Description:
Helix 3 (66-78) packs parallel to helix 5, helix 6 (152-162) packs parallel to helix 7 and helix 12 runs parallel beside helix 14 (314-320). Helix 6 (152-162) links the parallel strand 3 (130-136) and strand 4 (166-170). Strands 7-6-5-4-3-2-1-8 form an eight-stranded parallel β-sheet. The chain is an alpha/beta fold. 30% of the residues lie in helices and 20% in strands. It is globular and about 70 Å long. The protein contains 14 helices and 16 strands. It has two domains: 14-320, Aldolase class I (TIM Barrel, Alpha-Beta Barrel); 329-418, Immunoglobulin-like. One 2-acetamido-2-deoxy-beta-D-glucopyranose (NAG) binds at residues 33-35, 192, 195, 197. Catalyzes the hydrolysis of glycosphingolipids and participates in their degradation in the lysosome. Homodimer. Its EC number is 3.2.1.-.
Amino acid sequence: MQLRSTERQLGCALALCFLALIPWGIPRARALDNGLAITPTMGWLHWERFMCNLDCQEEPDSCISEQLFMQMAELMVSDGWKDAGYEYLCIDDCWMAPQRDSEGRLQADPQRFPGGIRHLANYVHSKGLKLGIYADVGNKTCAGFPGSFGYYDIDAQTFADWGVDLLKFDGCHCDSIQHLTDGYKYMSLALNKTGRSIVYSCEWPLYMSPLKKPNYEEIRQYCNHWRSFADISDSWQSVKSILDWTSSHQERIVHVAGPGGWNDPDMLVIGNFGLSWDQQVTQMALWAIMAAPLLMSNDLRNISPQAKALLQYKDVIAINQDPLGKQGYQLRKASNFEVWERPLADLAWAIAVINRQEIGGPRSYTISIVSLGRGVACNPACHITQLLPVKRELGFYEWTSELKIRINPTGTVLLRVEKRSHTSKSLI
Ligand SMILES: *[C@@H]1O[C@H](CO)[C@@H](O)[C@H](O)[C@H]1NC(C)=O
Ligand SMILES: *[C@@H]1O[C@H](CO)[C@@H](O)[C@H](O)[C@H]1NC(C)=O
């Protein structure tokens, strides 16, 4: 049947509205009920930058020690990180002594953490920050320190007694899917039983997926965030592999994220050595689109003003922390461009366009406004602000218009689209 043009237009609009309901209109599963991570966790985590450096003789400034964390705590407050929202100062692997104490409790390495973790937690709390710690569901941590298998209750209680506020629970040295699944669930309940509010950061799907498809709805009931993909490293190769994994699994993972539980694509490596400026812009923009925990791993004592400004960019953090709590997704991929979008509160949208071509110079991309936000972001008009790579008011756009942007190789243009008309300048 041939539709007349107005009917066809209406039919199109309805089709787009219908698209808006699937596949990400599925109701979200219940989240872990601990009242935490209502927006993605923000903070600092030592792993990518400092790894398992135990040599405090040769490298006193970069070994895993209480001095490192006390220095970072001071800088998080004095250099504006806390004010920007970075709140959790997190210890990763390699903080432990090689043995448990006589009562079976984990203990910090006495040389590197002479004051112990309780003392460090008090110090971190005195700065208005929160402390994160690390343990493992199996018999050993990834670096070979004591694992929590058989000690879940004792370890949860120890962390609560120390005043810990977040637990990253790794999945190395675990011999079966059953132990992995039971262990992650058990620890969630053990943390709850302590009565202390402790963010629970899991790697359950990462260790499970080689053997069995993770059930993300179930994982969300036990964890505040969960890693599904390999550790990030300080390279564009690593960042783009995470983006590719995420877009190719988005129909399974995007709808699961929401207040209380988030997909975790791993740390921000902005401010280190491996990413060009454009690649750092891409990581910041896409971690905002993905509603990712923002856990920086860098050296706050030595970071460029440009990287600092990017990490503390309020408008981009506001997208990451948007109260609607819906993760974005890849909308389209063609000619080495990727368009991603994320619905925001107040009918706004964030749009990111990445130039994935790694040869040549900046390339132009023309956005057809009607295609944004499942056809409704700019109906009948919207106001667009470019946030990255630099902030620029682009003005008002009609539903049927086009927007042409230029993007550097491996860089991203991040836009905020708001539903305002010329005349009212208010939400419609
Ligand atoms: C423990 O779980 C219950 C319900 O499942 C919840 O109401 C309570 O706030 C939780 N407590 C903590 C400390 O997370
Ligand atoms: C830990 O080691 C014991 C003894 O070898 C083994 O029975 C148990 O299954 C292991 N647990 C895990 C989670 O790998």
